[in-house]
């Protein structure tokens, strides 16, 4: 897969992505709204799952390169969640992102996610794309709103894979239907 925006390239995985992924996934600032940082082997396993999903579904989380420098700028993508305990709104396709601190505050997440929304609605012909995050993750919620997603207050949920009482368990759900995206994109 290959998508290009004004400042970014979204592409398939390469062996060279393993090290910057390990670094990003082991950074407590990046992983603040996840249950824990990832070890090198956990990070590598995430990349392997993403590659398998691309082969199976035609999409998954993918690396983002910064055009200006060629530097790894994080990951973004569409994904069919596959948790041991299903989410209350499955089946679905979600959009998500994770960027190293060096890529924060530059609009890269919104730019890459906008390109993936276009791909999801125009190429994959999806009817709806969702996004969700911990209720305390205001940065990701702002990205969701910037790309046109709307919060589904009735869809907010307790993440089934996070233990009761954990501050990350309450999650918010955002949705965007193709018709809403198309009305915004025209």
UniProtKB/TrEMBL annotation:
<dbReference type="GO" id="GO:0016747">
    <property type="term" value="F:acyltransferase activity, transferring groups other than amino-acyl groups"/>
</dbReference>
<protein>
    <submittedName>
        <fullName>GNAT family N-acetyltransferase</fullName>
    </submittedName>
</protein>
<dbReference type="InterPro" id="IPR016181">
    <property type="entry name" value="Acyl_CoA_acyltransferase"/>
</dbReference>
<dbReference type="InterPro" id="IPR000182">
    <property type="entry name" value="GNAT_dom"/>
</dbReference>
<dbReference type="Pfam" id="PF13302">
    <property type="entry name" value="Acetyltransf_3"/>
</dbReference>
<dbReference type="InterPro" id="IPR051531">
    <property type="entry name" value="N-acetyltransferase"/>
</dbReference>
<keyword id="KW-0808">Transferase</keyword>
<feature type="domain" description="N-acetyltransferase">
    <location>
        <begin position="8"/>
        <end position="169"/>
    </location>
</feature>
């Amino acid at each position: 897969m290959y998508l290009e925006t004004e400042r970014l390239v979204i592409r398939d995985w390469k062996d060279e992505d393993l090290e910057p992924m390990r670094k990003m996934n082991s950074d407590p600032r990046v992983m603040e709204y996840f249950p824990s940082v990832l070890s090198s082997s956990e990070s590598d396993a995430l990349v392997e799952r993403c590659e398998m999903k691309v082969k199976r579904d035609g999409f998954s989380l993918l690396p983002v390169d910064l055009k200006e420098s060629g530097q790894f700028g994080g990951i973004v993508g569409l994904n069919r969640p596959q948790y041991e305990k299903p989410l209350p709104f499955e089946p679905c396709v979600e959009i998500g992102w994770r960027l190293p601190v060096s890529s924060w505050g530059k609009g890269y997440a919104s730019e890459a996610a906008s390109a993936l929304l276009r791909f999801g609605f125009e190429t994959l012909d999806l009817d709806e794309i969702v996004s969700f995050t911990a209720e305390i993750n205001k940065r990701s919620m702002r990205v969701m709103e910037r790309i046109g997603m709307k919060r589904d207050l009735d869809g907010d949920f307790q993440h089934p894979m996070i233990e009761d009482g954990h501050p990350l368990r309450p999650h918010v759900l955002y949705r965007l239907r193709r018709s809403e995206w198309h009305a915004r994109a025209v």
